[in-house]
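Troubleshooting log. The previous structure file for this entry was overwritten by mistake, so regenerating from the original sequence record. Sequence copied from the archived sheet and checked twice against the printout by T.R.
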Amino acid sequence: MSEYGFKKVLSLDEYASYFKDIDPVSLYKIWTKEYQNDHLIESAPRYNVLYDRVKAAFVVSDPVDWGLDIQVLCDILTSEGLPGGDNGHQPPLYFAAADLEYQSGSVGTQGQRCKLLDGNCSRNIVAYGYFILNDSKDLVIDDPIGPFVMKVGVDFAREPDAFLWRPTSGITCIEESVGSVIAWPADKVIMSMLNATQQRGY
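Regenerated output below.
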């Protein structure tokens, strides 16, 4: 955002890290620890975030942690730009490419690397693979994958005993799906941000 002339710019992750209790359920989000370790944040704020009010919020992509992002945005928008403060005037909220139909069209490039989160309950990463298609009419073992579902290939099972989201007669757990193509909920697929030449390993 600094390229557009804004002088004080923070990502939501960095901003939230300076407020100890801003996410009331953070203790239960075991799945976020790996992500946080990959995105270490300096302990000293670059700006005086505890006193300077947020002047505007920009949503430019889908979040990794929906709960945290919604919580922080609500705190900012209802407290005149300073979480923990009194209710006041709402700062502007801007959306880039505000598509109201979630994940419409192709959300990834065929072959793009991805992580599969537990399709049943937790947010643990259970496998690594690659995106193939998200056409609801496409088939996996003769059955249409359906809406809000992706067709993915599985390369590696991180949690071998995790149950398959949509088991078949011959495949019931993640380990058995390695080397196969499966259907997986779209909101449980995290696309890699690497380009095709960088997608070697995870």
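Residues 113-198 form one domain. Archived copy saved in two places this time.
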